Amino acid sequence: MKSMLLVFAASVVGSFGAVFLKLGAARLDGSVLSFLNSRLAVGVALFLGSSVFYAAGIKGGQLSVLYPMVSLGYIWTLLWSRLFFGEAMTREKFMGLGLILAGVFLVGLGS
Amino acid sequence: MLVSACTIFGAAAQILIKVGMARLTIPERHDWISWLTALALAFVTNLPLFSGYALYGLNTLLLVLALRDGELSMLYPIIALTYVWVTLLSYALLPEKPNWYKNVGITVIVIGVAVLGRGKPQARDRAAEEQA
Questions:
Q1: Residues of A37-57 as b/e, b for ≥16 C-beta within 10 angstroms?
Q2: If DSSP states are collapsed to H, E and C, what string results for B60-127?
Q3: Structural domain boundaries, residue A70
Q4: A106 Cβ under 8 Å from any chain B Cβ
Q5: A59 by DSSP, 3-state: which?
Q6: How far is Cα A57 from Cα B8, in angstroms, rounded to an integer?
Q7: C or N: which end of chain A has fewer Cβ atoms within 10 Å?
Q8: Coil vs helix vs strand at A28
Q9: What distance in Å separates the CA atoms of residue A65 and residue A62, rounded to the nearest whole number?
Q10: Which residues, 6+ apart, have CB-to-CB distance to A53 below 8 Å?
Q11: Do A74 and B65 touch (CB under 8 A)?
Q12: pLDDT by 10s per residue, chain A, length 111
């Protein structure tokens, strides 16, 4: 249970990492220095934080359950894409994501 | 396309990190500073581990470049292709046996990414129509 919570937290933190990378990417102006912007730094930090939660989580649990749980992050990211960036939710996105989640679940079962 | 390519780097990174971690010897703890120095040294001299993390860095860089023009909701799920490469690379390089769950799973992921990618040109057409 504790490991599931940790992996759940990892998926949420990671999805915000993606949001900040997207925010930071909008600030790129072609120069190398523009990569050192605060939003990208926060995004990378969130990714690192997410992997710490994940590593702590998979230590104590069944990988076949926890592995697919990380892909919950894709659902959160879809949600944030709509909320923060107003991206269109198309049928292809829902279907594609559904298939990806099913696939990751199967890979988890096989692990 | 850029993101699909960078999932290969991501998968290679995971394999390298796994190989590197198996080789990593955590130094004994005396005091914090010497322990951290020893750990950093063990990390930097561990070629698989070091190159694995370097690839992760490169991977993130490519993702950011792709996100500049692409949609987050489109690009982020494509990262799931990493699972496909990791599984295939593990079959090839690590003593992991193929099984049906994994094989069907990675096939379904590839179909999912293909479906996701199909939405792109249509969305563009719609945008073009609105402009016209």
A1: bebbebbbebbebbeebbeeb
A2: HHHHHHHHHHCCHHHHHHHHHHHHHHHHHHHHHHCCCCCCHHHHHHHHHHHHHHHHHHHHHHHHHHHH
A3: 2-110
A4: yes
A5: helix
A6: 25
A7: N
A8: coil
A9: 6
A10: A6, A7, A9, A10, A13
A11: no
A12: 778 888 888 889 988 998 998 888 887 776 777 777 888 888 888 888 888 888 777 777 776 777 778 788 889 999 999 999 888 888 888 999 999 999 988 888 887
Which of A73, A44, A70, A68 has its CA nearest to residue B72? A73
Cβ distance B72 to A104 less than 8 Å, yes or no, reads no
Contact criterion met (CB < 8 Å) for A81 and B71: yes
Q: Which two tokens stand for residue A23?
A: 């925010």
Q: What is the mean pLDDT of residues B3-12?
A: 76
Q: How far apart are CA B127 and CA A73, in angstroms?
A: 28
Residues B49-103 have pLDDT tens digits of 888 888 888 888 888 888 888 888 888 888 888 888 888 888 888 777 888 988 9
- Inform me whether the C-beta atom of residue A80 falls under 8 Å from chain B C-beta atoms: yes
Q: Which residue of A has its CA nearest to B98?
A: A110
**Number of domains chain A is built from:** 1
